[in-house]
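User: Hey, my collaborator sent me this sequence without any context and asked if I could get a structure. I don't really work with proteins. Can you help?
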Amino acid sequence: MTERATTPFEVRGLIEGFYGNPWTREQRLELVGFMGARGLNTLVYAPKDDPLVRRDWRIAYGGDELERLAELVERCSREGVALVYCLSPGLSIRYSDEADADALCRKLESVAALGVERFGLLLDDIPLELQHAEDRTAFADLAEAHVRLVDRVFAGLAPGTRLVVCPTVYFGYGTEDYLARLGAAIDPRIDLFWTGRAICSATLDLSDATVFAETTGRRPTYWDNYPVNDVAMTFELHIGPYRGRDPELWRAARGVIANGMELFEASKIPFATIADYLRSPQTYDPEASWRVALREAVGEPDLEAFALFADTVRSSCLATDDAPVVTRAIEAFAFQLEQGEGAAASAELAALADRLLAAADRLLRGPVGNPVLVEECRPWISAFELGARALRRVAELAAAGRLEADAASELVRYLAELRHARVRVFGDALDMFLADLTATRVRPGELLAREGEAR
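Assistant: No problem. I've predicted the 3D structure and written it out in structure-token form, which is a compact way to encode the shape of the chain:
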């Protein structure tokens, strides 16, 4: 095996790049230790809702903010983790205004004085057209303006400093015109972020990375939007294992950084599996890695309970599995019932429901080894318990021979409350099962309003 294959990815990291409340000072420092212990070598600092990174990018650090950043730099240095400090000026910068370019460079210089040697210029999530009249006069389009800005920033950095740019077109086929023009014009030493075929890509493939490299003249550094669950994904809990990443991706990619959730403690579960993949992509086993990550997160006494719950929140951009254990049980129940084996069907479903209820009770009412994690996951665990109660009631009705007659009156409440919870647990499997049993067309909100009036 070649030396390259021994440690295939040059960049193995995590990014705080989500919309929502940034992580705390203490959480970041803890994360650096977590990374160092797992062979992750790059932390990208880019919280979308940190004003000094995005909205107030011109304002220099001072006071407690400067102390916090200096502390993070020192901790990263101690753990052998490279800190990439990012600015996102694209919402307000005037590309034709030299004063804005100077302000951007001064801000980066002030951070460099803390010992930072890697920077990111993030031009994502901004309009695709030039907004200021003077910019439209000075440049033909956004790509031309971005080439000028990137060149200006890179020229202002100290020799040996690395720069990575997130282009405005940061996902797709890797052949986009904006991307080709940017790649052809900027210094080949500058890296480019890329999320893959989609903002949240189901797969990252060697062939796509090769196309990107051919188009831009440099290997992509993947900004992987998993396990992040911001914006439209806030109802999902992304704690499943890392999957869908080509074991040979390292051959055409410089590396991967994974974007976390605002839920810091929960993020560490998929982060651990991401570290395993990046350390050894060719031997990585998602399920085995996940089991170890769950055990580390909750401890052996709570492992069975938390693993049962975690199996019901696997759904994400990486996996369409809708709670495999519960899905198989529902399918077996429906088949046995159709075959006239109601007693066996109800007994098996009841046994599973009791296991789920016991798991929910342990996690919600403790004591548990990791109460911070449970608190972050509480909305999903509560819905998990509600779903387990629904399954238990289905089993009871079937055992009594009343399922067909009483399903609508007995089960529609569970369906309504599960939908009203607005979190994704059991994927679509339980919702479809209960909807089919009740044959209801009543909107959940209407049902809950009626029951509230009756009380």
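In plain terms: The longest strand covers residues 11-16. You can pass these tokens on to your collaborator as they are.
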